[in-house]
Every structure is written in structure tokens, then in C-alpha cells.
Amino acid sequence: MKPVKVGICGLGTVGGGTFNVLERNASEIARRAGRPIIVEQIATRRDNPSCDTHQVACTQDIFEVVNNPEIDIVVELIGGYDTAYELVMQAIRQGKHVVTANKALIAVYGNEIFKAAEEAGVIVAFEAAVAGGIPIIKSIREGLTANQINWVAGIINGTGNYILTNMRDHKRDFTEVLAEAQALGYAEADPTFDVEGIDAAHKLTILASIAFGIPLQFDKAYTEGIARLLPMDIEQADVLGYVIKHLGITKRTEQGLELRVHPTLIPKERLLANVHGVKNAVMVYGDAVGPTLYYGAGAGAEPTASAVVADIIDVAREMATDQNNRVPYLAFSEVAQAKDMPVLPMEAIETAYYLRLHAVDRPGVLARVATILSDQGISIEALIQKEATEGELVPIILMTHKTREASMNEAIRQLEALVDVAGDVVRIRVENLDEQ
Amino acid sequence: MKPVKVGICGLGTVGGGTFNVLERNASEIARRAGRPIIVEQIATRRDNPSCDTHQVACTQDIFEVVNNPEIDIVVELIGGYDTAYELVMQAIRQGKHVVTANKALIAVYGNEIFKAAEEAGVIVAFEAAVAGGIPIIKSIREGLTANQINWVAGIINGTGNYILTNMRDHKRDFTEVLAEAQALGYAEADPTFDVEGIDAAHKLTILASIAFGIPLQFDKAYTEGIARLLPMDIEQADVLGYVIKHLGITKRTEQGLELRVHPTLIPKERLLANVHGVKNAVMVYGDAVGPTLYYGAGAGAEPTASAVVADIIDVAREMATDQNNRVPYLAFSEVAQAKDMPVLPMEAIETAYYLRLHAVDRPGVLARVATILSDQGISIEALIQKEATEGELVPIILMTHKTREASMNEAIRQLEALVDVAGDVVRIRVENLDEQ
Predict the structure, then answer these.
(1) Which residues fall in a coiled-coil region (chains A, B) (predicted)?
(2) Range A157-162 average pLDDT
(3) Which end of chain B, N or C, is less packed with Cβ atoms under 10 Å?
(4) How many angstroms separate the CA of residue A342 from the nearest CA in chain B?
């Protein structure tokens, strides 16, 4: 069959990986795709020393790729919002199919991009945008189509998981481990996107849309980072039988949809609790299939390239297909209106909690703490009170049963107002991941 | 769009689950598939009390479904070889697309079936044949298309994993746990297919074909069951840092392809080692993506139905597609000849080993054992000699480094010939699952 010609925009880590995988595995890829996939042009501002591109036409202008009449598929790997947005929209207007690894772009501008793509009759594929090389988009969008998805929970930021794994294994502070991760290249110089959960929220937004058939709503996602976690919390969680992971969670409830990224205690014996280092894993609960899990490398040159190239092959196969027979961008042929399934405010979610507070070692403190919780209808599942050293504050660790976040907020407000309690009450949410 | 009409043949566990999922999730499924999926006819010899089929035409004759001109997709869920084979081949000849969950049928007659399907221009889909609800066929065949797959290793028989999990957790004998599994419905009255590894070999045969692009070669698979495992081996493995799992392993080597099912020691910290009970999980190593893992329910009515229905939706989308643009049955448009990538005989594989032997407690025994191993070029990684009770045989546990199975066979022959060694030498293969 006729070769399919791609133009790669951006030859950084992922672009370089994509080029190398397409070259190295060209013959197996052609056998799988039923036709050769050829890199027709590369747009890059600088050389990537890991790539031997001398047989390919190179340009410094990404828009040359978009306007190249030979090219069937534009592969956007420049990242960021502005230029990437321009590039993708122009490609669509030129009738090119698009493959992108850009989670920020899809999470924020996806609705608009898919609308334009639908009108132009082109495919926009974005497997690499979530969890790197793990085929999680395909698994949910095509593999679990029989299911009503109840929830999705995942470790979808490798940097954060690397930091948490190291804090736990070596009982070290966040800042220390972060500095090391930066030195090793696992964390960016500005680590905000990763450690504050923004990157995870981009990915979670995409997962929620394909799981539930709703528009992308990144602005509704709740994000809480890992910078405030102490080794002490990780240790106490361990004593209680839990591991702390930075999870993205999206759940369908009768009231609406939960969409949240935050540190979470999960039982040690869960597979997710045993996903270490920079690895990613996503759990998906479907009403027919039950719990399933997908694990692998969430970042890196060739793992991400694996997903980009899989998309290229899918597009190569589907581009001749009538639009109605293609897999819809967000999994559903009619995306539900946001009002049909509103994203719940954080106050409306229900979960169990881990609390840590520091109190003066005085008779009656525990009783006052217990009364405040009980007044809010919050029941205590476990309590650990550390032994006091003369004159020192005693740390009190509490695990509660499930309660509404609004009640917990009120309880925490009252706890922090107690004269016996010093400083902030630390609150970490708990998920057992065993619900339907 | 026009509804797609399916005929379900067999209304047992999986057939009933498929019917119920299609009914219960009809509206979400229609939104995903872009058209309604309608059960037009059911062929079954007896009612399934979990299904309300009174609005569907039912027949006792499966061939009526095949000949029904209204039906687009024949769903074969009767199992077994003979009638299922007839049914599928007739459906193909009638120009119907086929969805099946029948691993035995595909592993044994797949080459023939796919050839006939290709000539007739119809799709034969079989996601449910491997690992139940886990979309592992799709993940390898479409999600990892960029990769040269190096190896696949999986827990692909839930019954076996249930038995091993229970033997380990409760230090119980195989026969005892098997009887319990039979009482609970986790094991068949005749458990041969499950505990002897035949079922796993069927699934592994299919995985190997889609991973490496070779014809199905079930007759070349090596199978060894779990019936001879003792709680003692599970315990000693634990002491050495391993868990014993019944794995299907297929690996590409320079000499050819490994295709084997046997009990295997794997390091405790691997995710696969933490897959318990009836659950399945498959690890796939791709040269670009590295290690990935897929976990979920490997059997049961609705988990299997989840895969069957996903296939139905895929077929509904692809049936209008030109054959060249469909995903090839066995992942590759040209399947390599068996001679290009021969399946290796077991003697040619290389792996590490766990050995248990029982010896008379006499000076020099260990030296004789060590000499035999060393003469075969086998080096010892660990050795545990249990304390002897007066006059009793001493169990000796050995872990070796990697060696060729042929050398190990010869060493075992010589060990068993030693007058100091009583009975058979137990040999369990070891895989670290950390290789590229």
C-alpha cells in the first residue's frame, strides 16, 4: 500500500524518540500498519544529537510542515500552549491529521480542537498525552467500551511518584528529594507543574472525558500538591497500613462527577501502592469488567514515542475511514453536556481522612478533639497519640470514616481554633480503591 | 446510524453476561459505538435464569443464527472445538463477522479460521479469548505497535493463580485447595485444562502470535502444571525472596522463540508477584516502551462479556472499512513463516533454576552435588541445607544462575543417579522479569 508520510514538529526528547523508533522499527511497523510510515519532514530549531536525520528534509519553521502538501499527518511535539495551539489548528485547517503528546493543550483547548477537527474531517490522536507509553486512552476508549465506568484513579505524574517513593524509602524530606530529582533530570528546574498536581490534573481531565463522555473541564479540577507532606505522615500512614501516593481520581456519583488530584493514603496491598519511582499506573473500574490496572513508563523519550507512533499507525489505518466509523475523539459520539454530569465542588465529595494535629499534652484535649469531630458527624476509625516529652506538643494522628469534605473543613476550622492545638491541622484524603 | 445486529450463540456464563451487559449499558454503548447494538437472536439449549430474554427471538439451533440474513455479527460463546469450529466456519462462509471468546478454538484452528475470514472479507475478533476482561489483545496489537516486543509473561489462568495464592497464604496442599476451588466454582470438575497449563498455553499461543507476528503454533508450546508443587517449595521460595506463579512466557531470542507455561519463581517485589486469587495480569516488554503490565479479571460472566462487547463495537465500526485498513487478525499484515522464527525446544531455553532434592545426611554429599552442577557449567547462586533429624533425609534447596535447560536436564539425571539422593529432584524455573 501507499506509504503514509508524517511531519515531526519538535525534535526534543519525545520528538527524537519518535524519529528513532520510526527508523529503528520501520520494518515491523510497516508489517503492523500494512504500509510504510515515512518521516517526510522534521521541523526543529536545533539538532538532537541522538538522531541521525541527514536523510530527512529539515526546516526551522514548523509551519512549513503544516503547509507541506506531501504530509498526511502532523506530529506536534513542541509542547506548551500558544505555538502548539496555532500549529494544531492550522494543521486541521489544512486538512492534516494530527498526533500530539501535549496534555496541557488537549486538557485546556481540546474541546475547541476536536470541534475544528470534526468539521475538517480529520483525526486528532493524543494517546501519548496521558501516562506516556501506557495505552490507557485506547484501553478506556476502545477496550472498555462495554462498561459504564465508575471511577478512574491513577499515578499519572512520574516526578511526583519518584519523590514520594524516595521520601518513603529513605525517610527524607521533600525539598531534599526534589533537589536530587532535579539533579537527575527527573524534575524540571521549575517543578510546579509536577509537584503541584497541575500536570496530573491535565491528564486526569482527559481521562475523565473519555471515561464519562463529558467535555474537557480542566478549570473544574481540584489540585493539591505534595510539597507539604512530611516524612512523619508517610511513616504514620505506614503504621496504619497505608502508602501515600499522589493520585488523580475521577468518580461518577449520583450527584455529579469528582475530579481531583491530591496526596492520598491507599492500602499497602493494592497494586497501585506498589508502583514505585517514575513509573505510572492507572486503575479503571468498569461496571462489567470490575477493576483493571495499566502500568508502565509515564514519560521518557521512547516510552512516549511508543504511544505517538501507535497513534500514527492508527491514523494511517483510519484516515481512509468514513468519519462516523472512527473512534470519537472523546470516546462518545455525543458528548454529554456539563450540566448533565456536573463536576462537583470539593466540599461535596465524600472520603475518609487522615489527620495530623499537634496538641498541648493536657487532660481533656482528646475529648475536645473527639467532640468536634462527632458534632460534625465524623466517626473516628483509628487514633495514634504519640508519647509526650515534657512541655512538648504531642502529635495526634487520626483516621476517620467517610465523611463529606464540607463537614471536615468545618471540623478542621474548629480544631485549629482550639487553644490546645498548635498550628495547622494536616489533612490527607484516604481511598480504599475497593469500591464499585 | 443504522443499528448493528448480533446473534448470540450460547447463553451460558459468558453468553448470559454478554446479553446482560448489552441490555443494561445499551445507551452508553450506543453513544460509544455511534449506533445501537441490537441482540437480534439468541441460540441456546437452555434458559439462563440471570437473563430476561423474552423480547428476543430464541432458537435451539445455533445454525439458524448463522443463516439469519438480518444478523451482521455472530457471537460464538458455546466453547469447545468441534461445533464451535463448524459454527465459526459456516458464519464466515455466510459473510458474517465473528466475535468469539474461545481460546482453544483460536489457538488450535486460528490459522485456518483467519485464512477463511480473509478470503471472505470478514472480521474475526477474539479479545475475550485471553485474560478475560483485560484488553490485552488490543493493547499489544494496537497500543504497542511501535515496538519490537521482546517478551510477554503472564498469569493467564485464574484457577491456577487462585490455587497458588491459597497454598501460599494458608500453607496448604495442592489437592486440598483444588477441592475447595472446585466447591466454590473456581475450578472445573475436571481441572486438567487449568492446572496442567493447557488453558494458559492456548492463551500464550495467541499472545505470542500477536506479539511476534508468527502463525499460531499451540502444538509447539511447552506446558507443565502446578499439581506437583509442595507448600515446602512455596515456603523456601519465600525465604529466598520469591513467589511461585504459574506463568505463560514467550520470548524472542536470537536462536528463536520461547513458548512455555510452567510454575516460575519471580521476585516478590514484582507487580506480577502481587497479583492474587483469580485475577490475571500480563507483562509485556517492548523495546521502546519498556515493561508494561495489564491487570484485571481473567474470567467470569461480565468481565469476559466486557471484552466480547468491546469486540462487537470494534467490528461494528470496522465492518464498513476496506480490509486493508483493518487491524490484521494476528497484528501483522504478513505473518512471518515459522521457519523465520522457530519455536525453540525446551532444551534450548536458558533460565535460572530452583532445585529441591532430598539427600542422606552424610559427609561429602554436598560436594558431590556441587561437582555435578559445576561439570555441567551450572553455577550456584544460593543453597539452603535444612537441619537433619537423626536418620532422616535432608532437603537441600539450590538456586542456580542462568543455564541451558539441556545442561540442567543432564545434571538432574546425574543427581538422581547418586546413591545419596532419594527420589526425584524437583526443578522450578526462575525468571527475574527485569530483562530487556
Answers:
(1) none
(2) 96
(3) C
(4) 18
